[in-house]
Amino acid sequence: xxxxQSPSRFLLQILKDRVLSGDKGVDIDCHTxxxxxxxxxxxxxxxxxxxxxxxxxxxxxxxxxxxxxxxxLGAIDAIKAAYGTVVQILDPPKDGFDLTMKINLTxxxxxxxxxxxxxxxxxxxxxxxxxxxxxxxxKHLSSKTMAPDVDKLVALVHRPNxxxxxxxxxxxxxxxxxxxxxxxxxxxxxxxxxxxFVEARRTAALNNAPSCMWSPAPPLELRGMNADALNAxxxxxxxxVFPRHVEGRKLDKTVWSLLxxxxxxxxxxxCSEGFMHTRMRRRVESLIQxxxxxxxxxxxxxxxxxxxxxxxxxxxxxxxSHH
Length: 323
Fold this sequence. Notes:
Elements: H1 9-20, E1 28-34, E2 38-45, E3 48-57, H2 75-83, E4 87-90, E5 99-104, H3 112-123, H4 125-130, H5 132-142, E6 154-159, E7 162-168, E8 173-178, H6 184-201, E9 211-215, E10 236-241, H7 250-259, H8 261-306, H9 315-322
């Protein structure tokens, strides 16, 4: 199984190249898009080559997801905590984007290892922003407390017009994903994949992993949600996270894994589909080769029969042969 990486490789490469370029540089004005429709607008100016303006557009939020000034709960505090004085949030953001930041590369640490860590964190802005409410709730779980002013069921956006849901309690947090796919083949493969995913969790080697359940119908935690939010053609996946799953360094890994679970499933479904197509093509090619061999053998036999290899003896020739 392959886990998606948090930093945007494209964004990280641009940052590293600009740091290594010294005071030299060219104007940069480019757009890039990542999975689940997270869009970036990256701008550098020659007049100020060590300052980057980065705008981020998040997936379109469904009605049940609550945003604060266009951002998830706790996103502003998470940005300030992660980047400190290196990043300045511009208000309002650029048109068509949910967040615009001015990043001053002259304020990066002088130590190379620390500098690369900060650059990687900047390239992970998607996780910092979208994962902020999830991280906030799981931090409270690690101390076995409840976050103040939080509903019994929290909807968090992770894909365009799609949410997953958290039911926080002091001793556990239940996370529910309505699994939706557009392609009919993807629906079949995803349903099979998720059922096997649940079975794999029951093996002894994964006893310490969060418990996992799949059901074709919405679980009780989603009782009362609107019909559109519960529209799932590949069933519902439920994880139960306990304090031991978010202790220390486990917290960031758990946040990213939960935030990208649907993308993780989609990736492996597409890989499975591609693998099956490859196997089918190879099988067809072997059958065609077998047919070609059979065809050439038949043609050789036909030439052998009609090519004069067998000479018919006449009665005259047969009589002369007795003498």
